[in-house]
Each structure stands twice: as structure tokens, then as C-alpha cells.
């Protein structure tokens, strides 16, 4: 059992919190039972409660070594503020020496917009990263959450800059992945059974950390949600999407792929103006915007709404996910990637002057070229 983090129910004071969620990779058998051990300051006060399973990630028919799972610990009858929490097998004592995680008490932003960027790892282009963050600001995003594994120095400077601003919340992801399976997040080291569960822990973390926001998007650092009138995410939600779909729990976006292997077709230096050749919007590798109060479970691509709500597939709407990437390798659907006749899309030129100005300013403040 590897516990990544523990996050409390989003409430204005700890006395109102009724549960704490632990986001884990679980190697125990399906019939194992656990108890939560909740500790106060300095590990002096101890409270024990049953650990119940909130969500379990299911990916294909093959079982991974470690399963992404959420355990829920009840705090209804506790008399002190939980500061640390751990798990023990049923019947074992709550010894202060067990492995525990500090309890995170997430903020509540009832009319806030947030983005889950999942995991930062390996190497990211610092200029493209700044462009992505500044675009999110132009969309009036309030908070971005990412789990940090390991990163090149200049990209780490970018994340640190936005974290110091309070715009980015960084949570840690272990550099050495737990378990015996040899794998990583790079495409060359992706393990088809285990890696989706490793990634899902980050999505579960976002789901619990951002529960107090009104609207959340799950996208990667090479993806941009683009409305044809450049409406902010919240404006789009309130003025277009919810009036049309009042019982929506989430909105799934079509994707236009801007393939960098096709070469520079636009104006440098921004990623979004440099590559303007794209595919037509398609229902592939799609991503979601969701309303936390209305969903039960999420992963990178799918949504399980709560009863009474629906997932809406925006197949013809005027908002599209722009995905900037190389030709997907090893995917039969993309076998003839270099033979595709692309469309030209100059929409992002409209934002280029403002976005470029912001990028240049941030680069100077960080001290990168």
C-alpha cells in the first residue's frame, strides 16, 4: 500500500469535516480490510475508524500490480483536528510509528475555475510552459494543480514561479515509482497495465483537492481549450453550456490535433502561433470539463456522473481542445499521419500580441531565455 496524499472534505472549518480521502496505489488483495488511524498534533491524540473504498480505477481486463484507489476515513465522531492519517490492516494497532500522511484541508472557491494538469515529469519546454500558464490566466482560471515527479531545471523554475504567485499548487509524486513493475510516464517506458493506474492517482488527487471549485478542466500542458470567441471557461459555462444542458455533470470536448511533425506553418515564437495546421475536430483522446458537485468519479478521459446528471459530448459545439503534439507512434489510426491533408487554423493569432507580451515578461522575471 502506497499512500500519496490525504485530503479532507472541503469545509469552512475542520469541525464540519465528515471524511478524509486517501489517494493510494494498493497492492492488497480484494478481500483485505483496513482501518484509518487519525492523529492530532504531535501524534498525541488518536482516533480509529473503518476505511471504506470510495473509488477503484478499472482499466482493461489485465490486473495491475498496484491499483489506483481512494479510501475514505470517517471523522464524524472525532474530538480533535486530524493532522496525520495512515492505514493499518483490520485489527492491527494504531501505532504512532506507522507511515502517515499530513491531512490537506483544501480551499473552497464556490465560483472558482481550476485546471488539473496531472503530472509534470521528464522534460518540458519552459517557453511553451509559460505560454500555457499565461493562456490559463487569460481564461480567468483561478488555480492549477499538478503533481511533480522530476523535471528539467528551467521548467522547474517556471512551476516554482507560478507556485509562488499562488496560481499553481504543486503536490509531490515519487521519483521512484512504488512496486516491482519497471515503468515510467515516458512513451518509451509506459506499461499498459500499470501506468494508467499511476496516472489515475494524480486525477484522484485533483478530484479531491479541487472539490470546492465550481468548474474543473482536466488537460495536459500541450492542450488548450479554445472557444471561437475566446470566452473564459466560466463565461462559456454560465452563458452557453449550462443554459443548454442544465443537468450536465461534465462536457467532453472534440480535439483538433496540431501535429508538429508537419513543420512550422505559422509565425514564431509561440507554440500556438507557430503550428497552425490541424486535423478536423475529432472524438479522439478527448478531455473533459466537469462540475465537482455533480460527478462521482473521473479519469483522464471518462466521467461517471452522480444520479440525475449527465455527461454531455460536445460534438458540434464551438469550443475545441487544441492538442499540440508529434504524430502518435504505435497507433494504427495514425499510421499515415504524415499523409493527412491538414486544415489551416489561424484563430490563435488573435491572442498572439497579448500572449507573447506576457510570455516575454515572465521569461525576464524568471531569468530564462
TrEMBL record:
Lineage: superkingdom: Eukaryota
Molecular function GO terms recorded: glycosyltransferase activity
Keywords carried by this UniProt record: Glycosyltransferase, Membrane, Transferase, Transmembrane, Transmembrane helix
Subcellular location: Membrane
InterPro entries on file: Glyco_transf_92
Organism whose genome encodes this protein: Mytilus galloprovincialis (Mediterranean mussel)
EC number of the protein: 2.4.1.-
Pfam families listed in its UniProt record: Glyco_transf_92
Lineage: Eukaryota, Metazoa, Spiralia, Lophotrochozoa, Mollusca
Topology term for the membrane: Single-pass membrane protein
GO cellular component, one term: membrane
Principal localisation: membrane
Keyword Transport: no
Name this polypeptide is given: Glycosyltransferase family 92 protein
Family the entry assigns: Belongs to the glycosyltransferase 92 family.
